[in-house]
Amino acid sequence: MTALTLSTAGAATLRADAIVVGVAKSPKGGSGLVVAPGGEAVDKAFGGKLATVLETLGASGAEGEVTKLPAPSGLKAPVVLAVGLGAAPEKDETYQAETLRRAAGSAARALTGTKKAAFALPIEATEDAEAIAEGALLGAYAFTAYQDGNGGLSASAKTGKNAKAGDKKQPLAEVALLGAKPRDKAYKAAAERAIALTEEINRARDLINTPPNDLYPESFAAVAAAAGKEHGLKVQILDEKALVKGGYGGILGVGQGAANGPRLVKLVYTHPQAEKSLAYVGKGITYDSGGISLKPAGHNETMKCDMSGAATVFAAVVTAARLGLKVNVTGWLALAENMPSGTATRPGDVLRMYSGTTVEVLNTDAEGRLVLADAISKASEENPDAIVDVATLTGAMVLALGYRRFGIMANDDAFRTSIHEIAEEVGEDSWPMPLPADLRKGMDSPTADLANMGERMGGGLVAGLFLKEFVGEGITWAHIDIAGPAFHEGAPYGYTPKGGTGSAVRTLVRLAERTASGDLG
Q1: For residue 30, what pLDDT is reported?
Q2: Active-site residue (options: 44, 76, 295, 468)
Q3: Pick from 65, 10, 11: which is nearest to 33 by CA?
Q4: Among this protein's residues, is 241 annotated catalytic?
Q5: What does the alpha-carbon distance between residue 202 and residue 318 come to, in Å, rounded to a whole number?
Q6: Could you report the per-residue pLDDT of 98-109, keeping only the tens digit for each?
Q7: Pick the catalytic residue: 263, 369, 378, 510?
Q8: Residue 369 annotated as catalytic
Q9: Could you say which DSSP state residue 23 is in?
Q10: pTM for the whole structure
């Protein structure tokens, strides 16, 4: 993992392999580039002409743009990296935290193979320092567990630390944050939070990126158990026998066609001073072939990522424990493989869910809602103040919102709004979605209490309505569909890598923090 330090040294005097400064487009009415606050000493070393030099090299100041140039005499670092921040803020305004987070991520990615880099980006408050730290630590992520003779899952996801990558260039090894006041308690706390949060997001990314021949329900449960032991969580794992005894028909129905049996994992973090409790439920389909309703070629190659919701919940609960939040958080990981075989659930089969509700399975590729339904029903028995489930649930949500934002549905409009605001605050793009009552009728079944499919149009909303059926009476609930942003297939950008992203972890952690402080009522 990339190390983070807060430094009192000046940008000109710190010994590092590179120094990162921000460059922006002039505010409205101006022209050319401006060096962002934090880079004054570096600009001085260039005789006050750093912006001019960058313009000569073709830099535009666009967000995420990276320009490297040799450092002049007067700087200890041999390389200067200028990262674009977009338009400079107007007078009396500051750079947005997400702008700094993305810029730091872009810089960290560009510094792969570098041992130590000093980040001299604008810091006006602890929130800025934390955003830069998060961006740099997330941007420096690389999944190398299966390259150059490394040991796979045992060397990465189990520990939250990537294996050594042999001859490949290593991620940036150390981030030195300048201007962050290392002796100030608030800045130290911000750095510690950034380290805990990003380490768990990166562990979630490792899990998502792990191939399904190594990550299956039993091995995922083992990772959770090891983390629970390390961080003082209570962990309960229900195997096939326990699931049969408990009547978890949804989880069993999805997993019965696979050689690797399903699991339901319960992770419990408690605080002695907690007054509120949250239940997080994650979809954990470690590989989704579609089952008998088999996915066509071109749609199944990345389906190792269908456990991203469970990885998100796992990371959020562990982070809450590491931060010592004054709120009780229980994570439920509904784990199964969805495979076709002679024992697999068939279209037309009826499953009796944990709640006692019967469900006619019209499409075995609508399996995520089945495992989530059992877990939501079980979580409801503990009567938490709120339940939030997270899942790569529907392609319909990707069609509606694209690849970079998740949809939020809830049985309480105020709670949905709160989650949307929290997501935007922490830099996760999202959008509130409705649960139209008229779509419920499409799930009526002539055979069972309801079907697992409804109208094709609005399929993401139909899935939300299905889950709503299993929420305990009087319990506030929200559903986050991360099908778009959970797994990034394009080129990396900002602090977002290719592959697993850890989408919604930051939102769940901030929700727990808000709940602990009483901000959510």
Answers
A1: 73
A2: 295
A3: 65
A4: no
A5: 12
A6: 999 999 999 999
A7: 369
A8: yes
A9: E
A10: 0.96
